[in-house]
Design goal:
The protein has about 325 residues and is α+β, with helices and mostly antiparallel strands. The chain is about 15% helix and about 25% strand. Strands 3, 4, 5, 6, 7, 8, 9, 10, 11, 12 and 13 form an 11-stranded mixed β-sheet that branches. The protein has a two-stranded antiparallel sheet with strand order 1-2. The longest helix has 12 residues.
Length: about 325
């Protein structure tokens, strides 16, 4: 039996459709003038203050975009550059994209029905459009390939992590699926290859297990998640599933919490960074080695249909590849 829609789902149901249609798989940008914004400021000045990149010399001058009717309000009416904006006003526009090389990578689909689309995501593909990874993101590529404009990710994988990535098809069902992840009702299983340094505190024999508990903190504007003293807020169950004799280990990881970079930070803190790591301290990495972290499996009871779901990646991590100097 499906759960009744939550408050977030009810708010989305009441929300008006965007005044600008998607363009090339990308949603329009919506900016709402915040409370406390100064009075008497024109739309052009306010927008450029919030989005300085609009004034990039390589972009179309913002004044031209206003003159062309490209900046609209919540009802689709064009803003004039000098029109005064007030708190709560909405300004919608399409971003102009810098040139981007999109790798010609296949998009293997593990499952698709009227509710879900599940991708076996390649390494080094962003989940959402962000920064320099927009057209090459999984979301934009899938929207373009399928024509499904309502497609949205139900959770996220790091760009450098490969494996099972689930997308929802229907906006009215999105909250039900996302709440499964928020409540910890999805069984997530990862595989990783690590090269433990001397003195690493990880178990090393196949079949051995450990519970990794840490206090992690991700600060705004910083790429790395910090491991700090204090009560644990991140827990991961670990099992050694292989020790090939080359100084590396194969691990099965079941995160019981969902902190940013949780697995990468926890393993690095124990002297066993994941092979191919480029963000957390590690031995010198083999050039061009993808991060050896794979989202192997997701399992849950579908909140819409009541059907048990088990989604398993067909990808394999690179065997026989070591870090230099180990």
């Amino acid at each position: 039996m499906s759960r009744p829609p939550g408050r977030a789902a009810r708010r989305r149901a009441r929300r008006r459709p965007p005044p600008l249609a998607q363009r090339g798989g990308l949603d329009a940008v919506r900016w709402q003038v915040p409370r406390g914004a100064p009075e008497g400021v024109g739309a052009l000045a306010a927008l450029c203050s919030r989005f300085p990149a609009l004034a990039d010399p390589a972009a179309t001058p913002p004044a031209e975009r206003f003159a062309g009717g490209e900046i609209v309000d919540a009802d689709g009416r064009p803003w004039g550059a000098e029109d005064e904006v007030r708190p709560g006003d909405e300004l919608w526009f399409h971003r102009e994209l810098a040139p981007e090389e999109v790798p010609d990578l296949p998009l293997p689909i593990l499952h698709r029905d009227e509710h879900l689309l599940v991708l076996d995501k390649p390494h080094d593909m962003a989940t959402m459009p962000r920064g320099a990874h927009v057209l090459g993101s999984a979301l934009v590529r899938l929207r373009r390939a399928t024509g499904i404009e309502t497609l949205v990710p139900l959770h996220r994988l790091d760009r450098r992590t490969a494996g099972v990535l689930a997308f929802g098809l229907r906006p009215e069902e999105r909250s039900a699926y996302q709440q499964l992840f928020a409540r910890g009702e999805v069984d997530k299983e990862y595989e990783a290859r690590v090269a433990p340094a001397p003195g690493s505190t990880l178990p090393a024999a196949p079949g051995e297990r450990a519970l990794l508990e840490d206090r992690l903190q991700a600060r705004h504007g910083e790429l790395r998640t910090q491991v700090l003293p204090g009560a644990p807020n991140a827990r991961t169950e670990l099992e050694v599933i292989g020790a090939p004799g080359d100084g590396t280990l194969r691990l099965r990881l079941r995160p019981r919490t969902g902190r940013t970079h949780q697995l990468r930070a926890q393993l690095s803190a124990r002297g066993a960074p994941i092979l191919g790591e480029d963000l957390y301290p590690e031995p010198v990495a083999t050039p061009a080695l993808p991060l050896q972290l794979l989202a192997r499996r997701l399992a849950f009871v579908d909140p819409v249909t009541g059907t048990p779901r088990e989604l398993v990646s067909t990808r394999e991590l690179a065997d026989g590849v070591r870090t230099l100097g180990t």
